[in-house]
Design brief:
The chain is mainly alpha-helical. The protein has a domain at about 1-70. Helices cover about 55% and strands about 5% of the residues. A two-stranded antiparallel ribbon has the order 1-2. The longest helix is centred in the middle third of the chain and has 28 residues, at about 40-65. The chain starts with a helix and ends in a 19-residue tail after the last helix.
Length: about 120
């Protein structure tokens, strides 16, 4: 329940600054044609875009963590592997009786353990 509240608040607080940017365009602080803008309008737009980005990014992460965005993930193809038992059957018995440690040059070969 708490995660859902955080997701909802992040969405609301991420979309509210976009409404503020709309207000800046509506009041004429930035006009698309003829292109003109006040310094206040430009910096306020940048600040509101940064705020919106932070909250919407948090909402994305929360939704992904809750598993709400599974449709965006690509499915990885599963490769079929050969059974491991058949791979062990091809190893000679003599190779498994000795140690698998590498032998350094000039040292004695490892000795197989003999059970009594």
């Amino acid at each position: 329940m708490r995660r859902l509240t955080i997701l909802g608040l992040s969405l609301v607080l991420g979309l509210a600054p976009l409404a503020g940017i709309g207000w800046i365009f509506a009041t004429g602080m930035i006009t698309p044609w003829p292109p003109s803008a006040t310094v206040d309008g430009l910096f306020m737009t940048l600040i509101l875009l940064a705020l919106s980005l932070c909250f919407l990014l948090n909402a994305y992460w929360e939704a992904r963590e809750q598993g709400l965005l599974k449709f965006l993930q690509k499915e990885k193809p599963t490769a079929t592997k050969a059974p491991a038992a058949s791979a062990k059957a091809t190893v000679p018995a003599a190779a498994t009786a000795t140690s698998a440690a590498p032998v350094a040059a000039g040292s004695a070969a490892p000795v197989a353990k003999v059970s009594s």
